[in-house]
Amino acid sequence: MVRTSPYKPPGPRAQRAYHSTTYRKVNPGDHELFTTFSWDDQKVRRVFVRKVYTILLIQLLMTVSIVSLFTFCDIVKEYVQTNPGWYWASYAVFFATYLTLACCTGPRRHFPCNLILLTIFTLSMSYLTGMLSSYYNTKSVLLCLSITALVCLSVTIFSFQTKFDFTSCQGVLFVLLMTLFFSGIILAILLPFQYVPWLHAVYAALGAGVFTLFLAFDTQLLMGNRRHSLSPEEHIFGALSIYLDIIYIFTFFLQLFGTNRE
């Protein structure tokens, strides 16, 4: 008579629960934003990426709507240009909500606080972008929107297909960002004394290039199969990062190719 063992191997659902528990033990408190955890469950990754891009699409639709309103409606355009106080108020709201979402794990991960903060952040950033666009020719704004859309789509597809790991180039991206930062300071110091068009063009081209690389970097963080990846719970931070990259690319293209209104 053959004696059978009472032990039964765990099913797929129990194995996923075990792996999830093991992951949380490795990262206690869930305070790690970036992780080297390999996403073996492809379904988790697909749901995470889908959630990030759904939020991002809503953010971009809100921004494009406000930019269109500020560009095509003359009454709104004149109002925002004659009331710069709203610009600085929006900038303060943008800065406060960005720091809260980027630095505080609790508000970023808890519903509905994270969506409320993200909505306020998106509206404030949309106002800043719309006011900047109101100073440029309508054709220039549409041209830069088209260029930004094509560049971002191409970079996204390239980031998903390429074998090159942008997440391992953090040092290079930091150096480029510091170069852009100090170039902006120098340009701001020189601007009150003399406007140098070619220097502004170089600065805008550098900014567009740097944030295009950041878009590739942030896109690959979502994939989970690179050296560094974003935690599956950080869908708000993922959407926030890619949204900022796209907005900055658009604003730098606007400075590079845009034509001021007469």
Q: Rounded to an integer, what's the Rg over CA atoms?
A: 22 Å
* Largest beta-sheet characterization: 2 strands, antiparallel
**First-residue to last-residue Cα separation:** 97 Å
> Strand order, biggest sheet?
1-2
Q: What is the total domain count?
A: 1
Structural class: mainly alpha
Label this structure with key terms.
262 residues, mainly alpha, two-stranded antiparallel ribbon, 10 helices, 74% helix
Description:
By secondary structure, the chain is mainly α. It is built from ten helices and two strands; from the N terminus they run H-E-H-H-H-H-H-H-H-H-E-H. Strands 1-2 form a two-stranded antiparallel ribbon. It has one domain. The chain has helices spanning 12-26, 42-72, 74-82, 85-103, 105-109, 113-133, 138-161, 170-190, 197-223, 235-257; strands at 34-35, 229-230. The termini are far apart. The protein is globular.
Explain the layout of strands and helices.
Layout: H1 12-26, E1 34-35, H2 42-72, H3 74-82, H4 85-103, H5 105-109, H6 113-133, H7 138-161, H8 170-190, H9 197-223, E2 229-230, H10 235-257
Antiparallel strand pairs: 1-2
Give the gist of this structure.
The protein is mostly helical. It is built from 10 helices and 2 strands, in the order H-E-H-H-H-H-H-H-H-H-E-H. The N terminus is likely disordered.
